[in-house]
Amino acid sequence: MKIYLIEDDPIYAEFIGKALKSDPANELKTFYSGEECLKSLTSSLPDVMIIDYKLPGISGIDVYEKIKPRITEKNKVILLSSLDDGNMVLSFIQRGIRDYVIKDENVIDSLMSILSGKEDDYYLFN
Hints:
The protein is of the alpha/beta class.
């Protein structure tokens, strides 16, 4: 599975990356800004994009809006944030984002559930 992680905190990106790379089938590429990721996108999107909501420069939601026309049923976009705000989550859903994960002690379990297609079995919204 080809995964792009867009996370501006290098330590947190490494933490997430190690967990994702524990599955040898995952091919991970990490970006530290939305602009950096958008520049590298070619004709097709990766299987999964995990995007931090609060990024320097262009925000995670803006990255999503820029790629939205290219997203197919084969792509999965997961928004990641340390904010646990119901109104914000509602705005994500209204924009078409179906997977939102809070950066808490369950972040790895939440991400792995979504990646394995078991998001319905895991309570993602605290």
